[in-house]
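> call design_seq(struct)
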């Protein structure tokens, strides 16, 4: 989650500053070829949305140093976050009314899992509401990517060579979320942890596989509308919200 960075502002605890400036966003064909060579299980079609690589300029911003933990999300739940309609977009409120996340087992890990592990099984709407409750917002894809890889186009937060000792990944054979502080050797140049590995993270943007081909080169906010059914896996892998409900424009971060 992020906040706008004001000149002379003190950096809040648990956040880092990403300074104003340009960075390389997306992947080159050489990057993709290298990745496919190292892991032949990856479907090449999944990487086509990362080209062309381009230079993007962003204003300065503050971003959380760690993913949101079970302990932090539990505070949101216990503070009545699921009953405060003002925190939710209209579509988000519709989602929780229909899905009733407090009445099923989707939040079990929040209450019974390790407190310092990242929260999981949270929809985009819940992430959006939690960010609002925290006085922050979800990062755009561009903001997330710059915080993850710096300005030089590196493939991983630490550099260009894969290293299974720097992240929670399939090769590490852990097969469960790990505490957000477990991999200091994997942090990005700005000091962000778990920008590779561990769990997937939400950004504010709609998704369009062709967006990189026509996106603005300064503070891109994502497509104006979502691509129709962009994900070709099973709906349960990403949550029903991608298919059944769409955030209202007023609810976008």
């Amino acid at each position: 989650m992020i906040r706008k960075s004001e000149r002379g502002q003190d950096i809040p605890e648990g956040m880092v500053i990403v300074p104003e400036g340009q960075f390389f966003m997306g992947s080159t064909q050489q990057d993709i070829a290298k990745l496919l060579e190292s892991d032949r299980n990856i479907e090449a079609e999944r990487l086509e949305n990362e080209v062309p690589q381009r230079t993007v300029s962003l204003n300065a911003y503050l971003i959380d140093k760690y993913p949101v933990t079970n302990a932090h999300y539990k505070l949101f739940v216990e503070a009545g976050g699921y009953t405060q309609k003002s925190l939710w977009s209209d579509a988000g409120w519709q989602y929780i009314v229909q899905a009733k996340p407090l009445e099923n087992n989707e939040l079990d890990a929040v209450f019974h899992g390790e407190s310092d592990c990242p929260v999981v099984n949270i929809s985009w709407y819940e992430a959006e509401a939690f960010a609002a409750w925290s006085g922050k917002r979800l990062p755009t894809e561009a903001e997330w990517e710059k915080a993850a890889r710096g300005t030089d186009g590196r493939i991983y937060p630490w550099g260009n060579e894969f290293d299974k000792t720097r992240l929670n990944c399939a090769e590490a054979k852990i097969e469960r979320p790990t505490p957000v502080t477990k991999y200091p050797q994997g942090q990005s140049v700005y000091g962000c942890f778990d920008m590779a590995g561990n769990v997937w993270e939400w950004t504010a943007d709609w998704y369009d596989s062709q967006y990189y081909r026509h996106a603005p080169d300064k503070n891109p906010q994502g497509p104006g509308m979502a691509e129709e059914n962009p994900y070709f896996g099973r709906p349960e892998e990403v949550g029903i919200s991608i298919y059944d409900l769409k955030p209202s424009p007023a609810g976008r971060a």
